[in-house]
Amino acid sequence: MSHSTDPRPMTVRRSGPLRGTAQVPGDKSISHRALILGALSVGETRITGLLEGQDVLDTAKAMAAFGARVERLGQGEWSVHGVGVGGFSEPEGVIDCGNSGTGVRLIMGAMATTPITATFTGDASLSRRPMARVTEPLELFGAQITAREGGRLPITLQGAADPLPVRYRTPVASAQIKSAILLAGLNVPGETVVIEAEPTRDHSERMLAAFGADIRAETTEEGHVITLQGRPELRAQAVAVPRDPSSAAFPVAAALIVPGSEIRVPGVSRNPTRDGLYVTLLEMGADIAFENPREEGGEPVADLVVRHGALKGVVVPAERAASMIDEFPILSVIAAFAEGTTVMNGVAELRVKESDRIDAMARGLEANGVRVEETKDSMTVHGMDRVPGGGRAVTHLDHRIAMSFLVLGLASEAPVSIDDGAPIATSFPDFLPLMQGLGGDLG
Ligand code: S3P
Fold first, then answer.
1. Which domains does the chain have, with CATH numbers?
2. What residues of the chain score a pLDDT lower than 50?
3. What is the pTM of this model?
4. Strand ranges inside 282-437, DSSP E
5. Residues in contact with ligand 1 (CB, 6 Å cut-off)
């Protein structure tokens, strides 16, 4: 889908205590993977709790373009009749992945070892993002790639007819690179191996195992090593998508900084490879309880109960960055309300997300009276008793920047505005009514 939605300016005012239950949407990473693995298996995969954000809808459309039968049965309930590993057919049109780095990178991987050709495109944000990190390893399998200057979209990919197995060490911590290689490895005889310095989110590994692939992960002196045996027959599964800890982070942050708040966020994934924000918040002294821990859809989940309270600044170590990579924008907002200074290390990857998130947060926080320092790969936020607000933040087509500043304004002295809230629909379509339902004054 093309996203030529008009910009939607929004304003948020200081709000009373937030109360109630926040039903956050399904996990974005798991939703993309459920559709893609469903499309690559034999039989009907039933998905419940799918995130119906634009990013995931674009992936659903792409899977249909590659030959899978994809149907929406009800709210968050989807059926995918797959074509089997190596069964993708050549799409007729261009595959538009909209705003989604995960979508385009994983789908390129999934088709790179099937002898078909496809052209991928995306919105202005996605077209600026680096793709060579994925296309280079895909070329090792034998795929041929034509990209714009700097390896950017649009990209035409011709899948390998006689793919070779690949052993690859990822140059940056990225679950998207890892997942693209594993998905490509599915249609290759022999073993495909990915080595990462630090473990990144492991949803692909968990779900590949659940669909019947022979995949193992081990920590050796080389690093975190994932080995996949090629050419499995993937069998369709029922996938229950847990709620997204990255989306939960926004109401959680709001409850932490708005005095008197107490909210409940049920069924949130507590996958250890995604848990870094929550570890950090506990170190800051946040009042968060994790109730009813249980397993759902192969992932650990819990109900979060969050209360407002005093917070103190902390130093976030670089090794934790991968497990909270999408949460630094909202952490920088929380840090503005903490006592003392919060330092976020090892965050260079933030510069190549939907926007340069270090720059976008630093400029927006400064516009609202918060002191921020940045380096190439770190950000420091100086907390204050009262955050002045009163500024306008530029969101650069980035949903998480938009939601972060809307949370800031719930607890700042003067209203905060953003130039464009439309991109929020990529990951959290009901963000506005959900926050209003908790008592937030925004719109
Ligand atoms: C994702 C991986 C991360 C994350 C993105 C989702 C995934 O990106 O930022 O929102 O689903 O694999 P990188 O792999 O580029 O770090």
1. 10-26+243-442 (3.65.10.10), 28-229 (3.65.10.10)
2. 1-2
3. 0.98
4. 287-296, 299-307, 315-316, 341-345, 372-375, 378-382, 392-393, 416-418
5. 29, 102, 174-176, 179, 201, 325-326, 349
